[in-house]
Amino acid sequence: MEQLPVFYNLKGRKVVITGGGTVAARRTEISLRSGGHVTVFAETLSDEFIEFQGRADFVHEARPVELDDVTDAAMAFGASEDETI
User: Fold this and answer.
1) pTM for the full predicted model
2) End-to-end CA distance of the chain, in Å?
């Protein structure tokens, strides 16, 4: 088995995503479609994030993620292209 099918209720719950590229944008899209409240931590965001700008359930933090940022998150995705993050 190469994939793990997982079903997780994100409705109204906090989701943290690191990274501002394509992978992070796809994780953002699926999390928002699942009802999550998404916070993305990245210095800059690719054009793929334009469709999420201005949504009440989407926040962009132009700074590195910190431990306190993920403490109460229902799910977190490491989608940064910077391996040190």
Assistant:
1) 0.90
2) 29
Element (H, E) at 30: helix 22-33
Q: Of 1, 40, 2, which is closest to residue 21 (Cα–Cα)?
A: 40
User: H or E element: which one contains 24?
Assistant: helix 22-33
Q: How many CB atoms lie within 10 A of CB 72?
A: 9
Which two structure tokens, joined as six digits, stand for 50?
Answer: 């334009």
Nearest to 77 by CA among 43, 37, 35, 31: 31
Which DSSP category does 50 fall into? Answer: G
Q: What is the mean pLDDT of residues 66-81?
A: 93
Does the pLDDT value for residue 1 go beyond 80? no
